[in-house]
Please model this.
Amino acid sequence: MRKSGITAVTLTLALLPALLAGCGTSRARVPGAAGNTGPEKTALVVAAVPAESASGLYIAQAQGLFTRQGLHVTIENIASPALAMPDLLRGDVDIISGQWTTFFAAQSHGAGRFRALASGLALGPGVEAIVVPPGSPIQTVRQLKGATIAVNTIKGIDQMFSDAMLTAYGLTPADVHYVAIPFPRMGAALAAGQVNAGYLTEPYLTQSEEKYGDQVIGDPDAGVETNLPIAGYTATAQWVQRHPRTAAAFARAINQANQIASTDPGLWRKIMASALGLPTVVAGIMASGTYPATLDPRQLQRLAALMRTYSLLDKPFNVTAMLGERGPRSRRLGGTAVRSG
Model:
């Protein structure tokens, strides 16, 4: 097989300035580990959307890569990074694995200052898609006019990619209605007729195809979205300033794990099956994106430009603000090259 009203994001962003009271907003670079002093903080809580985008996190945990860096990581599942952001700002969570768009928008709106630590996932064929239930009269994206589409997060990256596909087929975002349904519940919502279509990511995409017979009608990995970075690992700038060696150690572990995901698909599938509780058949055929071992500002800027096009940003956003960069240069994050310029 091929293989609204006030939204949760809006509410979270509205509350962030209050939550930031007493929090510093210093910008700091993320240096490599200095000497042999080790990480400043060894026990970390990482909040993650349980999906393919967190592959590096699960691999690093399973393969002991965090332990080798002197870290003990506890993973907490979340529905979206926007809902976990207050915990990040309070310090209840150290790092979030999730959509870049959430943090670009939050920083652009002045809700906080954040630092990108490591890449998570970039698009590939079949990694994300718009699907419809079997027997649906909707067989193409063009036929979605008037449809209700489920997305994981209103005004998130999945809605943005859906908007981009609609535009490519001559429709506009105003031609459809979006509702928020978490990825794990979306297949059942489609089967129950609660929505006409859904935007799914792996492994939920393959699960819905296998369990319900849902059919793909649109893949965002085309045109300006091809190979676009969609998710990564983010902390607050203040946290990184206080824990530069911890940040570097975490980034090293994730970058090593991403290299494993890119070069050992068998191990990747095995770990994903275990971490996400996937049936063997789903883990065996789910689509794989790409797992960059570097943070590339040029690629991240592509995403920010698309956000501006589809109104997720109301002004241009320079991604180097989240990379500690002030101009064209090269640096290293956790021993891995980061390119800009």
Observations:
- Residues 244-263 form the longest helix (20 residues).
- The longest strand covers residues 114-122.
- The mean pLDDT is 86.
- DSSP finds 13 helices and twelve strands in the chain.
